[in-house]
Design a protein that fits this description.
The complex is a heterodimer of chains A (99) and B (399).
Chain A (H helix, E strand, L loop, with lengths): L1 E5 L4 E8 L4 H12 L5 E12 L1 H16 L3 E5 L3 H9 L8 E2 L1
Parallel strand pairs in A: 2-3, 3-4, 4-5
Antiparallel strand pairs in A: 1-2
Helix pairs in contact in A: 1-2
Chain B lengths: L3 E6 L7 E6 L30 H68 E4 L2 E4 H71 L4 H46 L4 H50 L1 H32 L11 H8 L5 H12 L25
Antiparallel strand pairs in B: 1-2, 3-4
Classes of the chains: A alpha/beta (99), B mainly alpha (399).
Chain lengths: 99, 399
């Protein structure tokens, strides 16, 4: 998976498949969130084709990290398997999900 | 009610039979009613002029026709009586069958009622759990499972990051031990140099010699502690590494497919509930239909029981025909007594009879008419005549 961070909008664009193997690179995202510079963070998941349960766990960790600092995370543009699994797990109760 | 057709031969009167309906233990039929004009006393006219030949021939023709009419009426009365008995027997049989049908319909209604209660839900320990409740229970359970999978995934990843952080700490401790080793090597070098200088100073360097020895001992102690710390640290590293591997195995178990089962069940459970509702609806319709059939069959049984009134009407018809037949016979007898020359009646008008019989479409009825009307034989039916059933394998002539 690839992360592209836009400092201006506080948007992380995610591309590819988000699995356990991506946890080292996601550590950088957590660090970035922990800096507290972005109050409104967006995970653009429209480029994600697959997410596993470890990926869901990392998203929840990011949410908790942001909440410690009073920041919010929104998910944008889920589709395919990602959209279905977010619906089944009722992620919309944890994150605002934008179409 | 059973009924038989009884036959009575009318003695000397023209060799014909009287037919009437008789129930068991019924009294014999009433005496036929005769017209007042048939009394022999009325046929004692004053002497009149002898009839002409054409008049005699015409009178004989009337006598012949009266004879035929008498036989025809007699045969018709027998047919009506026999048919009425047949209808009554069949009505009894039909009534019994409809009663059996009504019993079967009632049993079917009871079974449908049982099916209705079964369709509502499942009996668990004496309590009915509806399909809706089962679906809700499954949904709640699956929601709980999904929530726990998410919690497990989050905690696993949290632990992975904690172990990563611990691993970093251990690496930094290792770096510290490297620095301690370096410092220790310098300290040891200093101790050696101090000992050399102490030996070179002779007696004056005795104090330096003691310090140098203590520094040397201290360096050895530090090196020993450092080696112990390194051994412990290596053990910790090994444990962290094994824990990381184990955690990775747990965290990489992808449970997204299990989560997606929830999506599948989200489709299946409402479909299951809908199907159960459909089944209940169909069963309710079936119950209504079964009840309607029971009511219809009961109505049919009641309708069949009105056959008694039909039988009574036919009794009147037969009785009337017998009276008419008897009147013909008496008038003919009176005529013969008054005009013996007419006793030699004309031959029956066979052509007229054949034309009449050609209107009959049932051969066995036609045969009875031929036997009785033309041949003067008594009316007879085979033992199973009129009561043979089509489903017994016998053929039935309809038209």
């Amino acid at each position: 998976m690839r992360f592209d961070y836009d400092a201006g909008s506080g948007c992380f664009a995610m591309t590819g498949e988000f699995t356990f193997a991506d946890h080292p690179i996601f550590q950088g995202v957590l660090t970035q969130i922990g800096d507290g510079r972005d109050r409104s963070i967006v995970f653009d998941v429209s480029g994600l084709s697959f997410i596993d349960s470890a990926g869901l766990g990392m998203l929840i960790l990011a949410r908790e990290e942001a909440r410690k600092l009073g920041s919010t995370i929104r998910l944008r543009g889920p589709r395919g398997q990602v959209k279905r699994i977010l619906a089944v797990t009722k992620f919309d109760a944890l994150f605002p999900v934008e179409a | 009610m059973s009924c038989t057709v009884a036959r009575q031969r009318c003695g000397a009167r023209s060799g014909c039979d009287m037919f009437w309906f008789r129930k068991k233990n019924d009294a014999p039929p009433p005496e036929p009613m005769l017209p007042a004009t048939a009394a022999p006393a009325a046929l004692s006219p004053p002497p009149v002029e002898a009839p002409s030949a054409p008049q005699v021939d015409l009178l004989r023709q009337w006598m012949s026709l009266a004879e035929l009419q008498q036989r025809v009426i007699h045969t018709l009365a027998a047919e009506v009586a026999h048919t009425s008995a047949f209808v009554e027997t069949e009505a009894d049989s039909l009534s019994q069958r409809f009663r059996a049908l009504a019993d079967g319909a009632q049993e079917q209604t009871d079974r449908v009622d049982t099916l209705t209660s079964l369709a509502v839900g499942i009996d668990v320990d004496g309590k009915v759990v509806t399909v809706d409740e089962i679906a809700r229970l499954l949904e709640d359970t699956l929601d709980d499972v999904v929530a726990k999978i998410l919690l497990l995934s989050k905690e696993s990843m949290s632990m992975v990051y904690a172990l990563d952080a611990l691993n970093g700490n251990v690496r930094r401790v290792e770096a510290c031990l490297e620095q301690i080793d370096t410092i220790n090597r310098v300290t040891q070098m200093v101790a050696i140099n101090a000992r050399i200088e102490a030996e070179r100073a002779g007696q004056a360097g005795a104090t330096f010699r003691v310090v140098a020895d203590e520094m040397n001992q201290l360096s050895k102690s530090i090196r020993s502690v450092a080696m112990s710390m390194r051994d412990e640290l290596m053990a910790i590293c090994g444990s962290i590494e094994r824990g990381h591997v184990t955690l990775k195995q747990v965290a990489t178990v992808d449970m997204s497919s299990n989560i997606m089962v929830r999506e599948r069940l989200d489709t299946l459970l409402p479909a299951l509930v809908r199907r159960n509702d459909d089944i209940r609806s169909v069963i309710a319709e079936a119950a209504g239909g079964a009840g309607s059939i029971s009511a219809d069959v009961s109505g049919m049984i009641t309708g069949i029981q009105f056959q008694d009134r039909t039988k009574q009407r036919l009794e009147h018809v037969v009785d009337t025909l017998n009276v008419v037949c008897e009147a013909f016979r008496d008038v003919m007898g009176s005529t013969r007594a008054a005009a013996p020359e007419l006793a030699a009646a004309r031959e029956p008008d066979v052509t007229w009879v054949k034309n009449l019989l050609s209107r009959f479409t049932m051969s066995e009825m036609r045969e009875r008419f031929v036997a009785h009307v033309l041949d003067g034989e008594p009316v007879e039916w085979p033992e199973d005549s009129g009561t043979a059933e089509a489903d017994d394998g016998g053929s039935m002539e309809l038209f």
